[in-house]
Specification:
- The structure is a single chain.
- The protein is α+β, with helices and mostly antiparallel strands.
- It has two domains: 117 residues, Roll (Diaminopimelate Epimerase, Chain A, domain 1), CATH 3.10.310.10; 102 residues, Diaminopimelate Epimerase, Chain A, domain 1 (Roll).
- It contains four helices and 15 strands.
- The strands form two sheets. Strands 8, 9, 10, 11, 12, 13, 14 and 15 form an eight-stranded mixed β-sheet that branches. Strands 1-2-3-4-5-6-7 form a seven-stranded mixed β-sheet, sandwiched between helices.
- The longest helix has 14 residues.
- The chain starts with 6 loop residues before the first strand and ends with a strand.
């Protein structure tokens, strides 16, 4: 891993290390990813975005470029909403895509993006499916939640008390029979019909300052609780 090119980027303070790998040759072991993301001994990030041609991975994708996303602990992840935005902006700035519209490949499937003139990025996140209910345990409190699939798994708990008071220094617990590959946990306050306040504890990362797929899951869960059957963003 010595001497490799890297960049740092963030989407609403959800931050990443980008590793351009146009030849598809980087060997990203979980230990190497965790070392890169370590905030005391490494570069520091919520995850790693490897920029690799879809063809180099043999990926079943119509997109030229595949977002090989790894969580901070080195585990594989299907999708990352803020990561897609950072990834897409890099592709345009590096001259790898001309834009404004193209697709980014991911383990959750291709995600259409638009890179605007000011280099802000809009992502079509696809369908968000409510898959049931479960419970997250924070300290000694069990919080019921709505399970939502946004290409990756989420459990969204709407609570009455201010989410700022939750102690998320230790990982909340969840039902690993319902979520055998782990789950992203969102804790919400409904401020009014058009505004939510959210904290998120991401699978393989910990608490992060933002989460793109978590935001979609939060809206889908809230819509479901109000009686809607499905949501798409």
């Amino acid at each position: 891993m010595g001497g490799i090119e890297f960049l740092k980027g963030h989407g609403t303070q959800n931050d990443f290390v980008l590793l351009p790998d146009p030849s598809g040759v980087l060997d990203l072991t979980p230990g190497r990813v965790a070392a890169l993301c370590d905030r005391q001994r490494g570069l520091g990030a919520d995850g790693v975005l490897r920029v690799v041609p879809s063809a180099a991975l043999g990926a079943d994708s119509g997109a030229r470029w595949f977002m090989d996303y790894r969580n901070a602990d080195g585990s594989l992840a299907e999708m990352c909403g803020n990561g897609v935005r950072v990834f897409a902006r890099y592709l345009v700035e590096a001259g790898l895509e001309s834009g404004p519209d193209f697709a980014v490949g991911s383990r959750a499937g291709d995600r259409p993006v638009r890179v605007h003139d000011d280099l802000s990025v809009t992502v079509h996140m696809g369908p968000a499916a409510v898959t049931g209910t479960s419970v997250a345990v924070v300290g000694d409190r069990a919080l019921s939640g709505v399970a939502v699939d946004v290409g990756n798994p989420h459990l969204v708990s709407v609570i009455d008390e201010d989410v700022a008071g939750l102690d998320l220094r230790e990982a909340p617990r969840y039902d690993d029979e319902v979520f055998p590959r782990g789950v992203n946990l969102e804790f919400l306050n409904v401020l009014d019909p058009g505004h939510l306040r959210m904290r998120v504890y991401e699978r393989g990362v910990g608490e992060t300052r933002a989460c793109g797929t978590g935001t979609v899951a939060a809206v889908a869960a809230t819509a479901h609780l109000r009686g809607a059957e499905s949501a798409e963003a």
